[in-house]
Amino acid sequence: MKKKYGLLLAMIVALFMLVVPMSTQHAQAATDDSLEKIQKKGVLVMGTSPDYPPYEFQATVNGKSTVVGMDVKIGKKVAKDLGVKLKIKSMSFDSLLVALQTGKVDMIISGMNPTPARRKNVDFTHTYYQGGYDIVINKTDTAKYKNKDSFSGGTLGAQTGTTQYNAAKKQTKNTSVKGMTSQSDLILALQSHKLDGVAMEKPSAEAYVSNNKQLAMIPSDFNMSSSATSSAIAFRKGSTSLVNKVNVTVDQIKKDKLVKKDYLPAAGKYLKTNTVNTSMGHYWKAFLTGIEYTLIITVCSVFFGFIIGIILALARMAKGGVLKTALRWLATAYVEFIRGTPMMVQVMFVYFGLGLFVNLPALTSGIIAISLNSGAYVAEYIRGGINSVDDGQTEAARSLGMSNGKTMRYVVLPQALKNIWPSLGNEFITLIKDSSIVSIIGVTELIYQSNIVRSDTYRGVAPIVVIMVLYFILTFTASRILNYFERKMQHD
């Protein structure tokens, strides 16, 4: 099925678990009030990754982009039986288990299979769906490929870390197995003949084939356990009362065969609606939303990053007593640490790490993480700009009776800003592009929206072309504006 823990996420989870006091964990185990908490809160937050039709995907409903699919119908049924409202929180599949363990979501319904490895970290309900695996190929290759054994000497693709990826690695011979993080990327690679086949779940394979006449599907013949081909709902470890209550709903869904009779057919209708008009113009609202969030993140991060940068730069240049020395060392350590770690890890740490103590929204977490990252780089630009100002300027200001603070504020910093303006402009342009990283925690910026459009329309290249053009327009426009102000500064 979908992806298991990535190594990076596993390390972060392990770090978080060390932060949580052991006494709290024992207390939770002793008193299970998980059901009572949800009913008292009145809202059940469902985490999902809406890029996996027909389980969960985006569709335009009454002019609004909405998460739909088989799993969403199940989530609504669970919430209704609990007597609460359902709230859907979208994010990448890799982030879901961490989000569950850090309290960002109350449950996961996202085509997740209850493998033994996952059961060590979360509690699962009874399975609500039993599926299987097929291999999607180009229709022109139907005579060449019959099952997994036909790919000897070829290349078979699958989502990295999934059960089908592991099965392909173990159960094929003389076959190169290539993993990618997204099914839409895999289909794109298949159609561009970089892959010979893509192993995926049967319902997803059927969805792609039924909506793309250039594709076909063949049986995989993988030897898989029942846990690797079934889907269940995940809850935090120790949520026994909540799991038991939801099991009643799951059992009822299976007894009434609601998945096959109602939920899958309903998802199929949305899939057909999505492919009626797959033009990029039809999704202009999605791209506009992506631009909006990209600009919000960039502008806020530049503003707060500049303030943080000034503080860090001044702290790094502090000279004198013990306190100033300590500030200088702390600022230096911060800058070196931030510059020495990937921004993706920082975004995840702020969102999930602080989530243990403060439930910050994804957008706020993204702005905080990018601002902190930008501040470290801006600090070095500002420090270099201050050092570039001639010492005579400081001496002249001091001779006129200006204090150190006023000298820095009115004489040194304005000249430093003029010198480093091109570097600051470059940082602004970079942040426009780097804002795409926050898509991993579910912020609906341009990259996130393009992935949704790709999964909705089954078109791989067109959405990529659109966001390339949009990013170019944003960066080119910003460059022209920054160059205008640069010329004004030079003229002054």
TrEMBL record:
<feature type="signal peptide">
    <location>
        <begin position="1"/>
        <end position="29"/>
    </location>
</feature>
<keyword id="KW-0029">Amino-acid transport</keyword>
<keyword id="KW-1133">Transmembrane helix</keyword>
<dbReference type="InterPro" id="IPR001638">
    <property type="entry name" value="Solute-binding_3/MltF_N"/>
</dbReference>
<dbReference type="Pfam" id="PF00528">
    <property type="entry name" value="BPD_transp_1"/>
</dbReference>
<feature type="transmembrane region" description="Helical">
    <location>
        <begin position="293"/>
        <end position="315"/>
    </location>
</feature>
<keyword id="KW-0472">Membrane</keyword>
<dbReference type="Pfam" id="PF00497">
    <property type="entry name" value="SBP_bac_3"/>
</dbReference>
<keyword id="KW-0813">Transport</keyword>
<feature type="domain" description="ABC transmembrane type-1">
    <location>
        <begin position="291"/>
        <end position="482"/>
    </location>
</feature>
<feature type="transmembrane region" description="Helical">
    <location>
        <begin position="349"/>
        <end position="372"/>
    </location>
</feature>
<keyword id="KW-0732">Signal</keyword>
<keyword id="KW-0812">Transmembrane</keyword>
<feature type="transmembrane region" description="Helical">
    <location>
        <begin position="461"/>
        <end position="482"/>
    </location>
</feature>
<dbReference type="InterPro" id="IPR010065">
    <property type="entry name" value="AA_ABC_transptr_permease_3TM"/>
</dbReference>
<keyword id="KW-1003">Cell membrane</keyword>
<dbReference type="InterPro" id="IPR035906">
    <property type="entry name" value="MetI-like_sf"/>
</dbReference>
<comment type="similarity">
    <text>Belongs to the binding-protein-dependent transport system permease family. HisMQ subfamily.</text>
</comment>
<dbReference type="InterPro" id="IPR043429">
    <property type="entry name" value="ArtM/GltK/GlnP/TcyL/YhdX-like"/>
</dbReference>
<protein>
    <submittedName>
        <fullName>ABC transporter substrate-binding protein/permease</fullName>
    </submittedName>
</protein>
<dbReference type="InterPro" id="IPR000515">
    <property type="entry name" value="MetI-like"/>
</dbReference>
